[in-house]
Amino acid sequence: MRSRYAAAVILAAIQLSGCNRSAKREAAAMTGGDPDRGAANIATYGCGACHTIPGISGAHGLVGPPLAGIGKRMYVAGVLPNQPENLMRWVQDPHSVNEATVMPNLGVTPHDATDIAAYLYSLR
Prior knowledge:
Elements: H1 2-31, H2 35-45, E1 75-76, E2 80-81, H3 84-92, H4 94-97, H5 110-122
Antiparallel strand pairs: 1-2
Helix pairs in contact: 1-5, 2-5, 3-5
């Protein structure tokens, strides 16, 4: 019985890692960024202080919305159609989209915004 359980757990882990790789490839193709670098950038810029972000250690913030499944949302920041260039614009300069936002401008570079978008779009 234990061996069946162990086999099921191993199989599930293999399947999930395959899905994760597929999601990362799709997100990279969609944005031109690197999801792995994006995850590191998210940690570096401290995005988890305000957002809950799956896969990012310590990212359990409750100020901004949780970012799980952001790729399935219709809008970025409630006003921009959810497209990679709009997500990158929001990450780089949120006040250019909404002057009243409490999201700070963290000085995210264009390159880092591309990678951050790739990571966020890889979340499913």
